[in-house]
Amino acid sequence: MPDKAAPATDRHATAHGVAANAPSALVIARGAAAGVLAAAATDSGFAEVVVVPNDHIALVRLLRASSPPRLVLADATALGASLVPLLRTMADPDLAVPILFRLPTALHRRAVGTAERLGLTACAVGPEADADTVTRALRALPPRSNAAAGLTADALAAAIASRAIVNRYQPQVRLSDARPLALEALARWEHPVHGLLGASEFVPLAEASGLSVALADRVMRRAVADLGTLHRRGLSLRMAFNLPLDVLLHAATAERLAEAVAASGLPAEALTIELTESQIAHDLAAVRTAALRLRDQRFGVSIDDFSLSAAQAGLVSLPFSEMKLDRSLVIAAREDRAARGALGAVVRMAHGLGLLIVAEGIETLATWQMARDIGADLAQGWMVGRPMPAVAVPAWMAAWEMAVATGAAAAPASPAFGS
């Protein structure tokens, strides 16, 4: 789906009151260091503090964070190979969690610089810092800058050319048995000033400045390359990503997709191309032609952000292979019996046409159960996994499959975060 990550400033700690809207903190530390950092978080007003012994466990927890932490405190002795994937996950626009490092002074500049280049608010204290010192450092954390303003087409073109447009991947699992089946690619811009920007902050600029094709090509090629890498590691997932209608209407698009897939050694069936309902409504005849062209190449085609009005307009009868139920529709169905009945009828109709149904917005056990009850096939949402860099997918998948094996995969997350 077109990514709608909330601006980080709405969810981010601010100076002189870092915990004002932050009920939970995550401490990555062992032994006495864990006690120091946990005490500082408590003194700073955090109602719940979760302590984990290393950055790998922290990453796994964060990837399934229904209610993520509002602060991370990390000691050098607990940091290792998962630190960079952890920071990249923390920097996603719907998280943007500030971090305090407790580590040798010689490493301060490198650690803080890495976090800040990703757009995170970060600070560091020495390895012997006590709880009072850490608390003072937290109070001095600067506020994150406002969401990007004044972005230019030239800057976006340069970002596309320099590969500063990166992908994050959100998993989809089968509701019947919780098996991971697919990922959705979501575009991000690693901006040198504003940090990691969500697609909603730069896709309109791309569309207005004639950069849609270049942007879509960058996202598509990165998604195919990352999926090929995952397949070679034995993770046989499918990949979905959105392409603008004007890109899909080019006759060469299907061929370019086929070439990219062949070069990565992937089957065409591993890719699903998403079109939003608003795009589809503009020109049904053109959409039918583009969809048939993709289906002829054995790609999947999905109608994204599906609403009940789309069913009334007959859009579901177009040659799609998948339908994604919009998050707002799923949440409404959870709360309202009439909405649930109407959505169930649409799902039955879509199944009759051979469509796979993906339910977005799966953030609680109640929503998971409702989606399963109305007949949806796949679940996508924070309860399953947050958008993550490709390098974090194997860790998420291993943790998810372990949770499935122990019967905990569909358990609601803790009031703090993770499961």
Q: SSE layout and pairings?
A:
Blueprint: E1 24-28, H1 31-43, E2 48-52, H2 55-63, E3 72-75, H3 83-90, E4 99-102, H4 108-117, E5 122-125, H5 131-139, H6 153-161, E6 165-174, E7 180-191, E8 195-198, H7 203-208, H8 212-232, E9 238-242, H9 245-248, H10 252-263, E10 271-276, H11 277-280, H12 284-296, E11 300-306, H13 308-312, E12 322-325, H14 327-335, H15 337-352, E13 356-359, H16 365-373, E14 378-379, H17 393-405
Parallel strand pairs: 1-2, 1-3, 3-4, 4-5, 7-9, 9-10, 10-11, 11-12, 12-13, 13-14
Antiparallel strand pairs: 6-7, 6-14, 7-8
Keywords:
419 residues, eight-stranded mixed beta barrel, 2 domains, alpha/beta, single chain, Rossmann fold, disordered C terminus, 18% strand, TIM Barrel
What does this structure look like?
- By secondary structure, the protein is α/β, with parallel strands linked by helices.
- It folds into 2 domains: 8-139, Response regulator (Rossmann fold); 153-405, EAL domain (TIM Barrel, Alpha-Beta Barrel), CATH 3.20.20.450.
- It contains 17 helices and 14 strands.
- It has an 8-stranded mixed beta barrel with strand order 6-7-9-10-11-12-13-14, surrounded by 5 helices.
- Helix 1 (31-43) links the parallel strand 1 and strand 2.
- Helix 14 packs across helix 16 (365-373).
